[in-house]
Design a protein that fits this description.
The protein is α+β, with helices and mostly antiparallel strands. The chain folds into two domains: 77 residues, Beta-grasp domain (Ubiquitin-like (UB roll)); 82 residues, DNA polymerase, domain 1, CATH 1.10.150. 37% of the residues lie in helices and 13% in strands.
C-alpha cells in the first residue's frame, strides 16, 4: 500500500490556482465567442405592405414578424401569447394566408402583404366578423380575440376555396361549413376563458350572412 500523502493547502497556493483557472476559463469563453460570431450582416432592411401601407424597416435578422409588428411598427393588436406557435394569439395573414407571426422571421417576408387586426375594421366601421363577435359575446378577457377574428375570417375563405382540413382530407370531397369543420380549423386558436361556443356562433353567423 502506498504511504499516505501529507497535503497542506496554503492560502497563497489556493489563490494562485484559482487565478489560473479563472484566466483559463475566460480565454476559453472568448475563443468560443469568436468561433460563434455570426457571418455576414446581423440586420436586414425589408419592405412590407402592412394593412395596405408600404413600410420599410431595418431589423435584426432574428426578429420575428410578431416583434416587427409590435415593437417596430407599434401594431400591438397582434398579441404575444405563448411565443411558441401554440396559442394562436399572434395570428395574422401574409399574402392572404394565416400564420403564427411568432414563428416567422420578419426578414422572410420582404415584399409580402401583411394584414393585422388593425387593418380589417375600426370602431365606427367594423368588419362583419368583429361585429359578430360583439353580438355573440365571443370573448371575455379579449386577449386572444384579435387572433381569433383573424383566424375566423381566414377559415371561411379556406372552406369556400375548398382547402381541406383534417376533418375533410379528401381533395375530391365537397367541403361544407359545419360546426365540426369550423372547430377543427379553429383548433389552433386557444381561448383560456373558454368562450368557444360563442366564438363558433359568431363564425356561423357570418357564414350564414355571406351565404
Amino acid at each position: 500500500m502506498s504511504p499516505a500523502i501529507n497535503f497542506e493547502l496554503r492560502r497563497r497556493t489556493f489563490i494562485a490556482g484559482t487565478a489560473v483557472a479563472a484566466v483559463t476559463v475566460g480565454m476559453s469563453r472568448k475563443a468560443a465567442a469568436q468561433t460563434a460570431a455570426p457571418v455576414g450582416a446581423e440586420s436586414t432592411t425589408v419592405f412590407l405592405t402592412v394593412n395596405g401601407e408600404g413600410r420599410e424597416l431595418t431589423v435584426d435578422n432574428r426578429t420575428t414578424l410578431l416583434d416587427a409588428l409590435r415593437e417596430h411598427l407599434q401594431l400591438t393588436g397582434t398579441k404575444k401569447g405563448c411565443d411558441h406557435g401554440q396559442c394562436g394569439a399572434c395570428t395574422c395573414t401574409v399574402n392572404g394566408t394565416r400564420v403564427n407571426s411568432c414563428l416567422s422571421l420578419a426578414v422572410m417576408h420582404d415584399g409580402d402583404e401583411v394584414e393585422t387586426i388593425e387593418g380589417i375594421g375600426a370602431p365606427d366601421a367594423m368588419d362583419p366578423m368583429q361585429t359578430a363577435f360583439v353580438e355573440n359575446d365571443g370573448f371575455q378577457c379579449g386577449y386572444c380575440t384579435p387572433g381569433q377574428i383573424q383566424s375566423a375570417r381566414a377559415v371561411l375563405d379556406e372552406i369556400r376555396a375548398g382547402i381541406p382540413s383534417h376533418v375533410t382530407d379528401d381533395l375530391t370531397a365537397e367541403i361544407t361549413i359545419t360546426d365540426a369543420e369550423i372547430r377543427e380549423r379553429m383548433s389552433g386558436n386557444i381561448c383560456r376563458c373558454g368562450a368557444y361556443a360563442n366564438i363558433l356562433a359568431a363564425i356561423t353567423q357570418v357564414a350564414e350572412d355571406q351565404a
